[in-house]
Design a protein that fits this description.
The protein is about 25% helix and about 35% strand. It is α+β, with helices and mostly antiparallel strands. The strands form seven sheets. A six-stranded mixed beta sheet has the order 11-10-9-12-15-16, with helices on both faces. Strands 3, 4, 7, 17 and 19 form a five-stranded antiparallel beta sheet that branches. β3 and β4 form a beta hairpin.
Length: about 525
């Protein structure tokens, strides 16, 4: 049985044009449970680039491990391949310029958790920084309000990012202002002449505040997970620069119930830990930047309520947190350049129990005076086949988010069907090596699900099809090198907007998706 192993691969899109969607890495993620640790090393604020494998020691739960894979990645030399896509074709792993992203940076402009005036300050700093960008730096810019939005997905065109940064207009967050509103309401609440009535009034106001705090924590952590899943199939260490005042990791309030004072405690450790776990699995390091400028007393400074969550996200994923600063643009620059040189270490843990337990990771370097950053642990979880319900929910999540799934590399295009208005030929090519393959007599087989979705159409607004791919040994070798292609007819009728297409491995749940504009297909 061949598991979901990743090798460099080529995808052919139709007979006349090819698109390369390759994943090149010297550290393979395979069923043999290789554990990867990407390490950033600095000395006196500068990246250290001359370390060797023997300089590192990796500890799993305090036990030293033998390093089985070692690679040094420089952001200055790790540029991805440039493969022009045919007109109308799109890919979930190539930028609009046909570039395979390397040294990826995602900027998340957080309006949900940041005061309106501080958003404006953050936007000015972001615009100031992106004005210095050079061609070749791969950036994406997302915003977070009640939902996660894409302002500009991955591009190495500095002008696209500059225009996107200027489009990142500040927006008011009712959940963010709920604390101030609750304080005003509590200060102006009338005395009802009864302790129990006053307590009920106070509790009603604070319940509104509770829901706002819960919304911020749940929406933010879910957005982090969506971004991690979006980046899952892309190679190397990814940076998520989270420009945000964050949310409180825990709160404690004194309230009155039936005339008796009680202490109520809320904490969002489970939500944060789950998001950190998902980010680690996708090799995403969080760089949290609080744009709130230094203010005269009584500025809370290091006691600002969001700092704890910022440190948990950054520390747990091997990133950094910046707060109580005035130069946000400099913090962004530091975060972008932090992993100029990355050491990719891999080891096979011995006698490991796949019971879902957490394993702490630590790394030591045989050199004095250096600072190290890396993810702090991983979960020893067996690769269990997802249930049919879980696969269905996963597909629904893909179509519910503006971000494309990258677990399976794919490219696709739509062509108008001759003499049949409203009908299109959908051509897809995807990485067969990222599917679960099993031997069946003299052939190799894979089970996939193909789903289409029209977001702007009334129901029924999509299709779903289970497909069994059967290949001879020779055909398998060919498709592993060149990708697997298939065609389907899509009946769009008078629909406009986008068609979303997803391919899912029914055994592993891994998926890839793309968005195809119908207008570009000649509608």
């Amino acid at each position: 049985m061949v598991g979901p192993t990743r090798w460099p691969g080529l995808l052919c899109l139709a007979a006349t044009a090819t698109a390369v969607i390759a994943q090149e890495t010297n550290v393979l993620r395979v069923n043999t449970r290789l554990v990867e640790v990407d390490v950033v090393v600095h000395s006196k604020g500068q990246a250290v680039s001359d370390l060797k494998q023997d300089d590192f020691t990796v500890f799993d739960n305090g036990k030293p491990q033998k390093i089985a894979a070692f690679n040094v990645v420089s952001s200055r030399t790790a540029a991805g391949k440039s493969i022009p896509l045919p007109p109308g074709a799109v890919s979930n792993r190539l930028t609009a310029e046909g570039q395979e992203p390397a040294g990826i940076t995602i900027v998340l402009y957080d309006m949900l958790n940041t005061a309106l005036e501080d958003q404006s300050w953050a936007r000015q700093a972001l615009v100031h920084y992106v004005d210095t960008l050079q061609s070749g730096d791969h950036f994406a810019l997302y915003s977070l309000g009640k939902t996660l939005s894409v302002i500009q997905d991955f591009t190495d065109d500095p002008e696209r990012i500059r225009r996107a940064a200027r489009r990142a207009a500040p927006g008011a967050s009712t959940d963010r202002t709920a604390d101030d509103l609750a304080a005003d309401l509590l200060a102006s609440a009338p005395d009802l002449g009864d302790a129990i009535a006053n307590g009920l009034q106070q509790n009603a106001i604070m319940s509104m505040q509770d829901m706002a705090q819960i919304n911020r924590a749940v929406i933010t952590t879910k957005a982090m997970e969506l971004i991690a899943n979006h980046l899952q199939g892309l190679p190397g260490r990814k940076k998520l620069i989270w420009i945000s005042s964050s949310f409180e990791a825990q709160t404690t309030d004194i309230r009155s119930h039936n005339g008796q004072q009680t202490i109520e405690h809320k904490e969002f450790g489970d939500e944060i830990n789950h998001a950190v776990r998902t980010l680690n699995a996708a090799n995403v390091a969080v760089y949290a930047i609080d744009p709130t400028p230094l203010k005269p007393p009584p500025d809370l400074g290091l006691l600002r309520p969001g700092i704890a969550a910022m440190n948990i996200f950054a520390g747990g994923t091997g990133g950094r947190a910046f707060y109580v600063i005035n130069d946000v643009a400099a913090a962004i620059k530091t975060a972008v350049e932090d992993s100029e040189v990355t050491y990719a270490l891999g080891f096979y843990p011995g006698d490991i129990k796949l019971d879902g337990s957490y394993h702490s990771l630590s790394v030591k370097v045989a050199r004095k005076g250096v600072d190290l950053r890396h993810r702090k642990g991983y979960y020893a979880t067996d690769l269990k086949q997802p249930t049919e319900k879980q696969n269905q929910e996963s597909l629904q999540d893909i179509f519910a988010t503006p971000l494309e799934a990258t677990g399976i590399g794919m490219a696709a295009r739509l062509d108008p069907y001759p003499r049949q208005a409203g009908i299109y030929r959908l051509t897809m090519t995807f990485n067969l090596q990222e599917l679960h393959l099993e031997r069946e007599k003299n052939n190799w087989v894979a089970l996939i699900r193909l789903a289409t979705y029209f977001p702007s159409a009334a129901k029924p607004n999509g299709t779903e099809e289970s497909i069994k791919i059967t290949l001879t040994e020779q055909r398998l070798r060919e498709t592993l090198a060149n990708g697997y292609s298939m065609e389907r007819l899509v009946i769009a009728g008078t629909r406009t907007g986008d068609l979303r297409v997803a391919i899912q491995d029914r055994v592993t749940g891994a998926a890839g998706s793309v968005k195809l504009p119908l207008a570009a297909a000649g509608h």
